[in-house]
Amino acid sequence: MEELGRGFVKAVELIVSLDAEVVEITVRSLMISATSCGIACAICFPLGGLVHFSSFPGKKLFMSLVQTLYSLPTVLVGLFVFVLLSRSGPLGSLGLLFTPAAMVIGQVIFVSPIVLGLAVSALNGLDIALYDAAVGLGASKFQAVLQVMREARYGLLTAAVMGFGRAISEVGLSLMVGGNIKGFTRTLTTAISLETSKGNIELSIALGIVLLVLALMVNLVTGWLQRR
Amino acid sequence: MALIEAIKLEKYYQGRQVLRGISLQIDKGEVLALIGPRGAGKTTLLRILGLLELPSRGEVYFDGVNVTSSGRLRLWARRRMSFVAQKPVVFSGSVRDNVACGLKWRGRNSKSAADRIEAALGLIGMSEYADRDAKALSVGEMQMMALSRALVGEPEVLFLDEPTASLDPVSAARVETVLERLIKLRNMTVVMTTHDMGQGQRLAWRIGVLMAGELLQTGEPREIFCSPATREVAEFVGVENILAGEVVSKSDSLAVIDIGGARLEALTECRLGDLVWVTIRPEDVTFARVREQTSARNVFRGVVTKVAGVGALLRIEVDCGFPLLGVLTKKSAEDMGIERGDEVYVSFKATTVHVIRRQQLKL
Ligand SMILES: Nc1ncnc2c1ncn2[C@@H]1O[C@H](COP(=O)(O)OP(=O)(O)O)[C@@H](O)[C@H]1O
Ligand SMILES: [Mg+2]
């Protein structure tokens, strides 16, 4: 218990003094997760629009599959990306394994279901007459879809923030395909998991506090968005 | 040439037919109201004419161009129209932002946009609402805003789906007043639906009666009211005194029609032996206490069965071998001393009797 107390004090010192390693890891985590989340949104928002505005056989089934994938285990995604990128895998020649790019690929796969699912339900929650109202004012089909997406902006932003929250807090996947290489692929979560096992409690606690603050911010933002 | 022409429109929803062979021409500058009971297919027809929906079969022409199936041509035509839905739709933002949406897709130059928006808001008396949050408006105000948003782009055709049906009576009256003024003010083609014959009469120059997916009659409001094409139309537009009869003699255009024993005379194209519906407007029925010398060819003696009414007009039902409803001012009724149970003479001219040929014998 005493050790934990001392660790905590040291951790606060690390954060307050803007320790180079803490800052570096935090910035890298934010960059990787923001990139993943951005790519996932760029894929899932148009896809969500397509799913919402079209009717195809198996649409319900598709959506329940997407919802099932909300709880996709990170290690499964990790395994999949690992096999994909490993030297003998189909994309092995790219040499991406154990790089931030591999982590981004994995996180995009990992957060896409929830971003897509939330995007579609944000669109579903709107008045269906909005589309026709735009068309009835001279909008083309595409312009009408854009208008409806604009109306859903808070819901879509919620989807993005939730996706980011999941990306920044996952560990299994980053560890498996990133490798926790110091100064290259080490992120908040992978560092905590390894530093703890190495007995470097102060750094772990410091990074943990940063992670917790980030999670709290994500929560506050989603809460605020949902009240809009 | 008609601005909008529909040819043999059919619409099916999940195999159920909602519109049946509707052909219709709408001229530039005319105000047409499609009336009919709920579920008749008014909204469906309006949405097809307004190019929001495709017909299952049939053609829609706009300004001489067949716009039925080409997305490009439909957009070209839609940019010259506006559609206002029955339930007002609100985009997020202020009232001004909403009205701006009426311009933004039509590619009008943005320099004059601000002025146009102010003008469109002024037109419906909502200038002081410009900066309010549109979602916080009352439903009536939303519908006014929707109207202004539809008008700001100066469309050639305005489609209105039951513009007052989702509103409380006060807002409905306000919207109707605004519409009446707009129609007078602008040389705009208006196609609207309503289930209220009164509204159709007040706003439209021409009325189309739609029932069970069929366009039963089109014509001026007076024409529909005075000579309904079928019994259903007569009932819907509120014609009273609809009686079943048979033409039992005919010379020139004067026919004698048997109404379950009683016989009345009417001018009609119907032939001897035809089964018909006869309608007599209550305003055309004259009352007297004694048999008077009159030019009216139809005079019946009957007993007053009911006197009802509020205000200056009384509705008087008489049993004269068939039930007949007439109206009388309260003053005349008092002067003549007409009360329930009294014996009276009722008369109406042969020219005021409207005769509809019955398609087939109904059970
Ligand atoms: N999108 C739709 N899907 C299935 N049935 C519909 C749809 N829209 C309308 N209908 C049916 O078509 C008929 C006509 O509807 P509508 O045009 O809305 O009538 P009205 O506007 O005269 O009340 C109704 O029986 C209605 O249930
Ligand atoms: Mg309707």
Annotation keywords:
heterodimer, A: 228 residues, mainly alpha, MetI-like fold, 11 helices, 77% helix, 0% strand, globular, B: 363 residues, alpha+beta, 6-stranded mixed sheet, 5-stranded antiparallel sheet, 10 helices, binds adenosine-5'-diphosphate, binds magnesium ion
Describe it.
Chain A has one domain: MetI-like (MetI-like fold). Chain A is mainly α. Chain B has 363 residues and is α+β, with helices and mostly antiparallel strands. Helix content of chain B is 26%, strand content 35%. Chain B contains ten helices and 20 strands. In chain B, helix 3 runs parallel beside helix 5 and helix 4 crosses helix 5. Classes of the chains: A mainly alpha (228), B alpha+beta (363). The structure holds adenosine-5'-diphosphate and magnesium ion. Magnesium ion binds next to helix 1 of chain B.
**Number of separate strands of chain B:** 20
Ligands present: adenosine-5'-diphosphate, magnesium ion
User: Shape of chain B from CA axes?
Assistant: elongated
Strand content of chain B: 35-45%
What's the topology here?
The complex is a heterodimer of chains A (228) and B (363).
Chain A lengths: L1 H15 L3 H34 L5 H10 L5 H12 L14 H25 L4 H7 L5 H11 L1 H17 L2 H7 L9 H10 L3 H27 L1
Helix pairs in contact in A: 1-11, 2-5, 2-8, 3-5, 4-5, 4-9, 5-8, 5-9, 6-7, 8-11, 10-11
Chain B lengths: L3 E10 L2 E11 L4 E5 L6 H8 L7 E6 L2 E2 L4 H8 L2 E4 L10 H10 L8 H11 L15 H13 L5 E5 L7 H17 L3 E6 L2 H7 L2 E6 L2 E6 L1 H6 L4 H6 L5 E10 L2 E6 L2 E6 L7 E6 L5 E3 L9 E11 L4 E7 L3 E7 H7 L6 E6 L4 E5 L6
Parallel strand pairs in B: 3-8, 3-9, 6-7, 7-8
Antiparallel strand pairs in B: 1-2, 1-4, 4-5, 9-10, 11-12, 11-14, 12-13, 14-20, 15-19, 16-17, 16-19, 17-18
The structure holds adenosine-5'-diphosphate (ADP) and magnesium ion.
